[in-house]
Amino acid sequence: MKSKCYLLVFFAVLSLKSFATHIVGGEIYYNFLGGTSYSITLKLYRDCYTGLAPYDDPATIFIFDNAGNYIDSIEIAFPGSIILPSNFNNPCFISPTNICVEEAIYITTVNLPPISGGYNIVYQRCCRNNSIQNIISPGTVGSTYMTHIPDASIGANNSSPHYINFPPIFICLGAPLSFNHGAFETDGDSLYYELCDPYTGLDESCPILGFQAAVGCPPIASAPPYPFIPWLSPYNAAYPISSSPAISINAQNGSITGTPDMLGQWVLGVCVSEFRNGALLTINKRDFQFNVIECQNLPVASIPLQNLFCSGYTVNFSQNSLNAYSYHWDFGDPSINTDTSNILAPNWTYADSGSYSVQLIINPGTLCADTFSNTFYVYPLLAPLFTAPPGECIHNNSFNFNGGGTYLGNGTINWEFGLAATPSNSNQINPSNIVFNSAGTYLVKFTVSENGCTQSITDSVTVYPKPNAAFGLSSLSGCTLNPVQIIDSSYSLLPINYFWDFDNGTTSIIQNPTAYFSNIGDYTIKLIITNEYGCSDTSSLQSPLTITQSPIAGFELSPTIATMANPEIEIIDKSVFADSCQVFWGDGTSSSNCDNTHHYSTMGTYTVIQVVKNINGCYDTAYNEIFIASDYYFWIPNAFTPNKNELNDLFKPKTRGVENYLFIIFDRWGEKVFETSDFNNGWDGNYMGKLCKSDVYVYKITFDDLMEKRSHQFIGNVTLIR
User: Do 479 and 446 sit in the same domain of this protein?
Assistant: First the structure.
């Protein structure tokens, strides 16, 4: 009856069609024997119905250091194997005969002196069954089993956790799964369970390593890390099997629950991680196959494993039986005779703490009845609680914690703050002055144990980093009234605010400011940076900034308004404290003599710039403007001879300082023979491509002068002589 109930508690998905061959699961773990000796255990599970590949004889394991360097290989003789039972033993159901799983347990002892980083112990093999439904090309995908012996500084004398039970050979379609996949741990370390990705291993081209390896195949395994199996969409480590509700695992006790909804054969991985004082020691990664079958007519009584402990005296019972149509519960309470129920999911309130044997009979009084018993532990409510204090800066941080919640108060307190904290743990209910030695976010675990129950609550505290203030100058010397550019080089993981004190009565809050100093002297510039959590840092220059006197530019121009008739301008230097001077006239020319005269060739407005420097490299600049106007001039001849002798061939006036110019010529009958608005153009005596005859012609000229902005008009006669 026990084996039948055991299989009930777990279910896997598997069709009754033929399966492929080879490995169906395994794990590797170790036990510390004292000194430098360890016992290494390799458990392998093989398909013994259609499997073709025998167990390795011997099996070869490989040892690497944490950097991946090969240390040694160990050969373990084949210890023999057993076939795991798979019968349901019920007259209402005939067990399938085409499912067979065989177990072999290889054990050896090795001597492993402590080394930095610890050891990785590895076994690799090919291959998995072709009939697996949740990975790509399963028959070509091998297996790798690895365990880690940690550095002695974080896990001295450690034994790794190993799993207590192997899952049942097959489970029923549509039946709720409840299987304890918990692990055994001897050192008092914390365990954390999760569904995870199995590793791949060798392939059919090189299915085995060691001295049995085929020609051309490596005798030594490759070093970690190893790739994961290729999941077939939509399956993955967190959803490895078609199920509703989805297969899941309790992170605290390793209980696997869910309901498979598709026949077939499925591979999945379970990892149990071992922690000590907040540091990860090792991970035991086991993979195995669930065979989900159709279980028609099979009655299976099943009560889920207890997953709530120290939760009070009232217990809510549930059952995940298969093919049940009536029920009888006995809650095992010795204080009363009526502690029974015939409903699907009853509850019962016990009078006191203790352990109680709860029994469920399904289909009582029939040939298809089945019975299942489970022990429940009833204790007062244990529910520790604390609220993490707000974050603090790394400098002068000091955290206080207050434990609370619901518990009797005889229990054992154990706070875990991690290796970055001083102290790293405490058994006080309200520990204070906990100091963290580096910035970061840290998990804090508050654990209370009483009545054989242990409950924990985890929260996090944040220690904010101190920013690093730093800045520089392009030079440690400057000049009065000249800009001094300051370049920030501070470092912070968080946004920061700036406060600059220039030691001259002025400040700034921008990142890269420009400072001005009116007086000569030495100045100590100081920067204070502060992040949003109040963490700050201060920086000052090791040597002060020295400000020396700047020259003062100045000059006079005479005159500031001139005409093209006399465009000469005189500059008179008025600068002080200057050792050199340069003037830029604004027309593209310059001079290093600032007491000088300059001639302008064209009219216009010009900006004259004076730049003065002293021997300290300080400079100053002054500006002024001058205007060169065009004087007004007009003259026109009264005759011309267009005979192409280049003497008096064109008839045009001479002008200066005019604009809006128009020049028109008419013959004596009033017909226009020439027109232009360009005062550089003249009449060559031609009209419509022919030279005009000798005669008197009339001209009309209009323009505005630039001096007085007045309009002018000239009408007169010109004689064309051929």
Answer: no
- Per DSSP, which regions of 493-645 are E strands? 496-501, 507-508, 514-515, 521-523, 526-531, 536-540, 545-548, 555-558, 561-563, 568-573, 580-584, 590-591, 596-599, 604-613, 619-629, 633-635, 639-640
Domain with 414 in it: 383-464
Residue type, 662: L
> Are 625 and 637 contained in the same domain?
no
Look at residue 558 and give its three-state secondary structure.
strand
Residue 623 shares a structural domain with residue 637? no
- Give the domain CATH number at 322: 2.60.40.10
* Residues 458, 537 share a domain: no
Alpha helix locations (H) across 326-433? none
For 196-219, the pLDDT digits (tens) are 999 999 988 899 998 888 888 999
Nearest to 190 by CA among 283, 270, 286: 283
Q: Within a 10 A sphere around the Cβ of 28, how many other Cβ atoms?
A: 23
Residue 325 neighbours by CB distance under 10 Å: 10
Say if residue 624 is in the same domain as residue 642.
no
Prior bond of 234 cis (ω within 30°): yes
How many domains does the chain fold into? Answer: 6
684 in Cβ contact with 642 (< 8 Å)? yes
Question: In this structure, are residues 11 and 172 in contact, taking their beta carbons and an 8 Å threshold?
Answer: yes
Both ends of the chain: CA-CA distance in Å? 144
Burial classification of residue 602, based on how many CB atoms lie within 10 Å of its CB (0-12 exposed, 13-18 middle, 19 or more buried): exposed
pLDDT at residue 17 greater than cutoff 70: no
Q: Is residue 300 part of a domain?
A: no
Beta strands 545-548 and 477-479: pairing type? parallel
Q: Distance between CA 130 and CA 263 in Å, rounded?
A: 15
pLDDT at site 90: 63
> How buried is 449 (Cβ within 10 angstroms: 0-12 exposed, 13-18 middle, 19+ buried)?
middle
Q: Is the peptide bond before 245 cis (omega within 30 degrees of 0)?
A: yes
The pLDDT assigned to 538 comes to 95
Q: How distant is the alpha carbon of residue 593 from its chain centre?
A: 63
Same domain? 480 vs 608: no
C-alpha pair distances (Å), 413 with each of 409, 428, 668:
9, 7, 127
Distance CA 403, CA 445 (A): 11
pLDDT digits (tens, 9 = 90+) for 629-672: 777 778 999 999 998 777 889 999 988 778 899 999 999 999 99
For the segment 101-147, what is each residue's pLDDT rounded down to a tens digit?
A: 999 999 999 999 999 999 999 999 999 988 899 999 998 999 999 99
Domain end residue (candidates: 293, 328, 358):
293
Task: Please check whether residues 691 and 586 belong to one and the same domain.
Answer: no
Q: Is there a domain that residue 579 lies in?
A: yes
> Same domain, yes or no, for 65 and 86?
yes
Within-domain flag for 253: yes
Distance CA 144, CA 123 (A): 6
- On whether residue 416 sits in a domain, the answer given is yes
Residue whose token pair is 């003599």: 593
Confidence of residue 51 (pLDDT cuts 50, 70, 90): low
